[in-house]
Recover the amino acids of this structure.
């Protein structure tokens, strides 16, 4: 018997400055949709309704307006950048739709009409900065794209670093898609900071990483690069030599050892090719579709209010580990992890929290003073410190 269909909006840019990541997310959404449609667990099927804003921020609002008016979708999965998400929120709030947002983001936002499946700042920014302070140094050079992700991430970084007695040595920003990075690389080589915090997006980041690696090699120096946004497919674009050693904070890495993730990676490679690699935002997009499907099944309806209630606190054993929606802020419980880029376009995980951590999008539980007050932790191996042990209260 043919299953009844539910239209599902997908909004991803197939062109523009971050097209590679958006295409990976679209592939993951379609993979999840196919699995839902082929599974006997669900008595409905999703009918994908695709829109491509082409990386133009203003086009995201028009794309969602088209999905809502012409396709009558109630649920939309998509948006890689925060700039695009902020274009979409007014229309989903006004029309009482639900946006399932997969990407990591900068926090300081909560909407009843958005389910935030990507990492909040306490899941990725805070663990990475604490590792930097404890293992590398308190002074840092910031290079990033000139939009809200960088602004807010650098603001959090600045507050934590200065509370620990460190300094933001410089904050250099490029417009989205800008690839003229030589002046930033030259300044980094001249100043030789203990670390570089990279919040550049897409091609800007790839060219910067290659240029910085080449300049460091010529100068005979090594400068650690830290990022909350790099993932396995991007390592291939950067190149093995230039990416090795980069320290990244993420809730998902392809190298996670669990039955769920091994099965997910096998299905991904069977579909996309043996030399392909799932990304954190792609995996999160897959999780968005699966969380939505399970919520619809539990609710017995795709109605927004019913789905929102059904999604709250419902545990899903995803490829990245157990995940569920906190009904207090519509963000997800996730397990923070830190890893270093290694050969083979992989990350080697060297620390992870003991259990999923409650999302704290406004960092209301962060005690800046305690970070500087516990220098003895710097000598502890990261693998022995859980995220819960590092949790502090403001």
């Amino acid at each position: 018997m043919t299953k009844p269909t539910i239209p599902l909006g997908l909004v991803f840019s197939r062109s523009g400055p971050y097209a590679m990541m958006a295409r990976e997310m679209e592939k993951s959404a379609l993979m999840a949709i196919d699995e839902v449609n082929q599974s006997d667990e669900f008595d409905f099927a999703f009918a994908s309704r695709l829109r491509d804003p082409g990386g133009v921020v203003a086009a995201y609002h028009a794309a969602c307006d088209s999905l809502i008016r012409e396709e009558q979708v109630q649920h939309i999965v998509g948006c890689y950048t925060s700039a695009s998400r902020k274009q979409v929120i007014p229309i989903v709030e006004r029309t009482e739709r639900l946006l399932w947002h997969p990407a990591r983001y900068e926090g300081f936002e909560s909407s009843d009409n958005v389910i935030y499946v990507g990492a909040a700042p306490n899941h990725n920014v805070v663990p990475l900065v604490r590792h930097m302070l404890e293992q590398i140094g308190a002074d840092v050079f910031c290079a990033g794209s000139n939009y809200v992700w960088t602004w807010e991430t650098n603001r959090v970084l600045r507050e934590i670093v200065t509370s620990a007695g460190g300094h933001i040595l410089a904050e250099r920003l490029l417009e989205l898609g800008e690839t003229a990075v030589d002046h930033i690389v030259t300044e980094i080589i001249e100043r030789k900071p203990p670390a570089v915090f990279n919040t550049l997006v897409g091609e800007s980041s790839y060219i910067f990483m290659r240029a910085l690696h080449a300049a460091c090699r010529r100068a005979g120096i090594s400068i650690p690069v830290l990022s909350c946004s790099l993932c396995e497919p991007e390592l291939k674009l950067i190149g093995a030599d230039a990416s090795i050693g980069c320290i990244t904070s993420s809730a998902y890495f392809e190298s996670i050892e669990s039955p769920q993730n091994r099965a997910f990676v096998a299905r991904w490679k069977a579909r996309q090719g043996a030399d392909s690699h799932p990304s954190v935002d792609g995996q999160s997009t897959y999780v968005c579709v699966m969380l939505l499907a399970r919520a619809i099944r539990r609710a017995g309806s795709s109605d927004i209010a019913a789905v929102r209630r059904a999604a709250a606190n419902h545990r899903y054993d995803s490829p990245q580990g157990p995940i569920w929606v906190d009904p207090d802020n519509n963000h997800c419980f996730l397990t923070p992890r830190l890893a270093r880029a290694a050969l083979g376009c992989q990350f080697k995980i060297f620390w992870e929290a003991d259990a999923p951590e409650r999302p704290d999008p406004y960092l209301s539980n962060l005690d800046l003073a305690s970070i500087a007050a516990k220098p003895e932790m710097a000598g502890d191996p990261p693998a022995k410190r859980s995220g819960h042990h590092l949790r502090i209260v403001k």
Observations:
- Residues 19-38 form the longest helix (20 residues).
- The chain has two domains: 5-119+256-333, 125-255+336-390.
- The first strand starts at residue 5 and ends at 11.
- The chain has 14 helices and 15 strands.
